[in-house]
Amino acid sequence: MNSPVKIPYQSFIEIDRNSETAIYLQVANQLINAIQRGFLPFGTKLPGTRLFSEILEVHRNTAVAVYDELSAQGWVESLPNKGTFIIGENQKKPVKVKDFEKNNLQNYPEATGFSFKTSNILDNPFEHSDCEYIFNDGVPDIRLTQIGRHSRFYSSILKRKSNQKMLGHYNHDGSEFFKQHLSHYLNLSRGLPISKNNLLITRSTEMSIYIVSQILLSEGDTVLVGALSYFSVNMIFQKSKVNIISLPIDNEGIKVESVREACKKQRIRMLYLTPHHHYPTTVALSAQRRLELLELANEYGFIILEDDYDYEFHYDKSPILPLASADTNGMVIYIGSFGKSLAPGFRTGFIVAPENLMAEMRKYLGIIDRQGDILMERALGEMIEEGEIHRYLKKSLKVYQERRDYFALLLNEHLNGLIRFQKPSGGLAFWMEWTVPVNLMLLSRNCAQQNLFIPKTLLYQNRDLTAMRIGFGNFNVEEMERSIAILSKNVTDLI
C-alpha cells in the first residue's frame, strides 16, 4: 500500500478553472481514471481532505465533495479513525511512485490492443488546401444561397408546438409531408409518375448508392460503368467486391453496343449511369440510347442505376427526361439529390424505386440512419409547397449560366489551342482535354505555389488521355479571371 504523501497527485491531476465542469468533478474523474488504469491499486490510502486540498490548492469543501463523489460511485470507502481507501480487487504487484512519473494518464491509447481488417479502398481521396483559389468538380456557390430565408423556414417549423413532439421520436422513414411534395415535384419536373411510397430519403447520393449496393449486389457480381466514372461510387462498388467493367464513352454517352457485347459474354447485374451529364465528361446520354438501354435491361435482366446528380442545373434547353420516367418494367433505380443549389444543411438525397424494393431499403436505412431529420424535411416540403424552391432555382440558374458563358470565354482567351472542350448544356463543371503534353500533377503543384489549388481528383491522365474536370459555379468573375490566369501561366511555363 502506498503512503498518501508519496503519491504525486499533481502529476496526473490537472484542474481547468475556466471549464464549465465543476472542479470537484474534474478531480474525481481523473482519480477514477487513475484507479481504472491501475495507478491507484486496491487498498491505497488517500490523503485526508485537509491535506488533499493543500496538495491540489483547492478549498477543503472541494476535497470533501471529491471524496463524496468517489464514494457515491463505489470507488472508495471511509473507515472510522483510519481514513479513505480505494476499494476493488487486490492487485498482485504494488504500484510504485516512479510509475506515476513516467506515465501520463491524460494520454489516450495511440493504437488498439486488438487486430482488425483494414482497407485502402475507402481511403479518403479528397484533399484540402489553404489556397485562395480552389478548383472543384462542380459545386454551387454558397454565397448565392439565401441562408437567412431558408433558416426562417426551419426556425418557424421548430417553434410550432405541433412539431416539437417530433423531436422525441425516431423516424427513419422520413417526413410523409416532404415525401408527398417531393414526389409531386419529381413528377412535374422529371416526369416520374411516382407516389410518396416510391421514395426513400437519404443524406446523400453516396448513402443512396451504398444502400442499393448492400441490397442488390453480391460478391462476384458484374457492374458496368463508364470508362471514366465517379470515383466515390467506384469505391462503394469495390467495397462490395463486385467485378467492375468500364465501357467507352463518346459524345452521346455510353456506347450501347459495348453494353450489348458485355451482356453476351457474361451475366451483368447492374449498369451505373449518370445520363443527364456524364461524370466527369459532362456529355448527355442521347434520347435514342436511353431507349436502347431500357430494351437491353429488359432483355438481359440487368439493373440500371441512374444517378441524376445535377439534374437541377440546365441552361440552354429543357433537359431530357430520366430513363426512370420511361421505365415500365421496374428495371431502373433512380437516385438524385434535392436542394443541391441550397446551403449544404438544406440538401438531401433520395432513391426512387418500386414499392417492394423500397420496403427492403427502409430496413437498411433504419439501421444506418434511424434518427433521420424530419424537421429539415418538413422545411424542404414547405419550400416546395410555397414555390420557394422554384423561385430560388430560377434566380440562381441565371447566375450560373452567366458564369458558364464567361468561363468558356476565358478558356478560349487564355488556353486557345491548348485544350478542347464543349460548353456544357448544364451542370457546374467543364471537361477539358489537353491537346499538348502536360504533366498534370506537376501543373497542380506549380499552381498551388501561386495560390491555385487543383485536387488530384480532378486530374485524368493516362497514355491516351490528358484531361481535367473543373467547376465554375463557385467562382465570381474576378475569381474566374485570376484562377484561369494562374492556370494559363503555369501551363505555358511547362510546355
Automatic annotation (TrEMBL):
SUPFAM superfamilies: PLP-dependent transferases, Winged helix' DNA-binding domain. Keywords: DNA-binding, Pyridoxal phosphate, Transcription, Transcription regulation. One of its GO terms (molecular function) is DNA-binding transcription factor activity. Residues 21-89 form the HTH gntR-type domain. PANTHER family: HTH-TYPE TRANSCRIPTIONAL REGULATORY PROTEIN GABR. In the C-terminal section; belongs to the class-I pyridoxal-phosphate-dependent aminotransferase family. This is GntR family transcriptional regulator. It comes from Chryseobacterium indologenes (Flavobacterium indologenes). The lineage of its organism: Bacteria, Pseudomonadati, Bacteroidota, Flavobacteriia, Flavobacteriales.
